[in-house]
Amino acid sequence: MLNKKSIDDINVKGKRVLVRCDFNVPLQEGKITDENRLVEALPTIKKLINDGGKVILCSHLGKPKGEPKPELSLAPVAIRLAELLGQEIKFAKDDNVVGENAKAAVAAMKEGEVVLLENTRYRVEETKNVDSFSEDLASICDVFVNDAFGTAHRAHCSNVGITKYVDTAVVGYLMQKEIEFLGNAVNNPERPFVAILGGSKVSSKISVIDNLLDKVDTLIIGGGMAYTFMKSLGEEVGKSLLEPDYLDYARQMMEKAEKKGVKLLIPIDTVVSQEFNNDAPYKTVNRGEIEPDWEGLDIGEKTRELYANAVKDAKTVVWNGPMGVFELSNYAAGTIAVAKALAEIEATTIIGGGDSAAAVNILGFGDKMTHISTGGGASLEFLEGKELPGVAAANDK
Asked: Smallest Cα–Cα separation from 178: which of 321, 19, 40, 62?
């Protein structure tokens, strides 16, 4: 298990603490439409305030590509976060992030006060992990806390580079929770351990499938990538999503599963339509019976039952990626069925971020899951068994 120092292992009283948060929230006309990431950041921020730290928050938002874009300013985040925290947050508006405003704001801080810096990606150095910006960030703090799991798979100035210039670099509560749940699930799961993988492409999940086949008891495949598996068995998939370059790979994975004694399940029936929209007629066909002009858009009823039964006795379940085109209501039933099945079992249920997290929350099953990851890309790389730069950079215990 990754043993990293956390905010519980240090004393921040009177110190300037720079916290890398994930405030990359969806904005519409300057209003935050989903504040889940702000709420998730509160425990770490409150702990540092209560311990008498001078708390400086930083985050990226969207992709300004190294230039100040007013519509990607963190100003709305400062306002909403202040309401959630119930205390004032000083927003240091600096196009170069660590400028006169930021330096003055930090210099004037008292214990327990909070300052928020401007979008770290306003600086072109951020995503290239260039030392000059890392040094700027380090110059305004004594301690660094990384609580941004969503960017842990990227080596940027504000999560990795800065650690070269500060002596104390630890993880926050959110990061700690992600490491514990995802890390333990993959490396030390309570069995039976079932992984459910959906989403459109096999190509983006290759190493995940490969890594999980060494660890799980059952691997369930759904979503668009299932058709590449069906086709690799010589079955007709019509005009369903298909990655011809990955047919051999799909076959190899099935062989690997068989050798390892892992149950690998792919859909036994499919909901198909001739058009990719909610208005066209649709029907359910058995596996191997998709006609030439039809495409599969969700798992069928028998598959939903099969998958629900496959998780019934599980003790650990990791789910990443929807079972169908869940944003179209006609093709959401598969994803709903899986969410419902997970909500009803006595197991550690972990939802890898991205679409599956969105689906679970939209469908109202969020509070029934043990852990919903805040990082889509980062949680996938964790499941691949990769070391995440943002995690690796923190001090070891």
From this structure: 40
Locate 382 and state its tokens.
């964790």
List, in order, residues 6 or more apart from 300 with CB less than 8 Å away: 267, 268, 269, 270, 271, 284, 285, 286, 334
What separation, in Å, do the N-terminal and C-terminal C-alpha atoms of the chain show? 12
Q: Is 377 a catalytic residue?
A: yes
The residue annotated as part of the active site, out of 354, 375, 376, 390, is 354
Catalytic residue among 368, 377, 385, 386: 377
Pull the structure tokens for residue 288.
């191997």
Please provide the DSSP assignment of 54-109 as one string.
EEEEE---S--TTS--GGG-SHHHHHHHHHHHTS-EEEE--TTSSSHHHHHHHHT-
Q: Do 384 and 207 form a contact (C-beta atoms < 8 A)? A: yes
Contact 291, 256 (CB under 8 A): no
pLDDT given at position 159: 97
SS3 229: helix
- Contact predicate 350/181, CB 8 Å: yes
List, for residues 201-216, the tens digit of each pLDDT value.
888 898 899 999 999 9
| 37 is an active site residue | yes
Structure confidence by residue, pLDDT tens digits, 7-44: 999 999 999 999 999 999 999 988 998 888 899 999 99
* CB distance 271 to 282 below 8 Å: yes
- Cβ atoms < 10 Å from Cβ of 67: 11
- Cα–Cα distance between 107 and 335 in angstroms, integer? 51
Which residue is catalytic, options 4, 15, 20, 37?
Answer: 37
Considering 69, 103, 201, 263, which one is annotated as catalytic?
A: 201
354 catalytically annotated: yes
Model pLDDT for residues 171-201, shown as the tens digit of each residue? 999 999 998 888 878 888 999 999 999 998 8
Query: CA 44 → CA 17, 54, 61, 87, 256, distances in Å?
Result: 11, 13, 20, 15, 42
